UniProtKB/TrEMBL annotation:
Annotated Ribosomal RNA small subunit methyltransferase E PUA-like domain residues: 17-61
UniProt-recorded name of the protein: Ribosomal RNA small subunit methyltransferase E
Compartments where found: Cytoplasm
Task of the protein: Specifically methylates the N3 position of the uracil ring of uridine 1498 (m3U1498) in 16S rRNA. Acts on the fully assembled 30S ribosomal subunit.
Amino acid sequence: LYIDHPMAKGQPVPVEAAQAHYLSGVMRLRVGDDILVFNGRDGEWSARIVQIGKRGGSLEIVAQTAPQRDPPDLWLLFAPIKKARTDFIVEKAAEMGAARILPVQTEFTNSERIRQDRLQAHAIEAAEQCGGTYVPEVGDLVPLPRLLDDWNERRRILWADEVMAGPVQTLSELPRGPWAILVGPEGGFSDAERARLSGMAAVTRISLGPRILRADTAAVAAMTLWQAVLGD
Ligand code: SAM
């Protein structure tokens, strides 16, 4: 369970109403039972339920069960698509260990707004499910030109490009270190965007094979490749 509260042995930790409902109604836990909690900073802890009710409850931290693990230095930049597919991308990015998930507005991106708070909640849920000790940060929608104008070249961009012919770039020859995977919207990138990306020293293009994948599939495929070859 993710609780944004300092954690140390003996520390009392409040539980919100929705989490209390999950613990008692869904997980059927009672006072005296132990659960695992994390706050994204201090590793994983076992905690005892001290009080639980409709309005919330409280826990007492018992002991640390795992140290804090830092996320791999991977970001995902993606163009938001339909709601359910955007939710899917955020959930999978959190599972795949992305440290930051940035929705990017490109020329052919249809949605002009996102619900950052909803997407952040999805990321927290996904992190809880796969026992992570950190929570990826979901950013607000940022226009691609602004993102690239402000880009810190030390983080390399792995651009998944369906137009690229030929075999997959040998990922194992790429340097380890901070990367951001970039996946386009359903309509792909415009000519102007393609020219801009092609001219950036920080950008490496990769193919995900000869088939044109849907954007959500491409995001998962690219993160899997990165994790398999460059992740540690
Ligand atoms: N521009 C294309 C079109 O409209 O026919 C399709 C874009 S594709 C549905 C969405 C995004 O997924 C692309 O911008 C790219 O980032 C990624 N993608 C899809 N298939 C890919 C492949 N085989 N290799 C690399 N990237 C791919």
